[in-house]
Amino acid sequence: MRDFDRRKFLKTIGVSSLAIGMAPIIGSLKFSKADEIDWFQNINRVKDPPLSMTPKEKGHVPYVQLPGTVKAGEPFDLDIQIGHSLHPMTPTHYIQWIEIYLGIELVSRIELSPLCPQAKVTIPVSMSKSSTLRVMTRCNLHGIWESIKEVTV
Ligand SMILES: [Fe+2]
User: Fold this and answer.
1) Superfamily of domain covering 33-151
2) For residue 134, how far is its CA from the centre of ligand 1 (angstroms)?
3) Which residues surround ligand 1, an ion (CB under 5 A)?
4) Residue 46 — pLDDT band, cuts 50, 70, 90?
5) How many CB atoms lie under 10 A from the CB of residue 142?
6) 141 with 123: CB under 8 angstroms?
């Protein structure tokens, strides 16, 4: 019993010393592991109507503009902007890519780098029938964001 207590005491001291020794290293990290997991674990979608979006949602949701009418087989320009006010494009915080899907089919994937001055693109699209338009984007700090729109042809 006495040896067990001593062993337990020594283990506790060892773990505590290790934790105290690591504290300055852990404290110096800029981003906590919990923050990364929150943003990168799922596809982020806006849960509330657009008027009540959080600043983070407003800054990352893809805004999609279509012409008033879309005719079957006729190409049209799809304007996509990331964020209500454009998402920054700096070396430390930027949009990495934008993907456009009709239903489950990939229409286009655009790679961006911090050298791209604005987080927006215009891409020609053609639809043969009414479909669900999905636009996905990835911020290097805040994960993947998605907008969905039903388009009637
Ligand atoms: Fe971001």
Assistant:
1) SOR catalytic domain (2.60.40.730)
2) 19
3) 139, 141-142
4) confident
5) 19
6) no
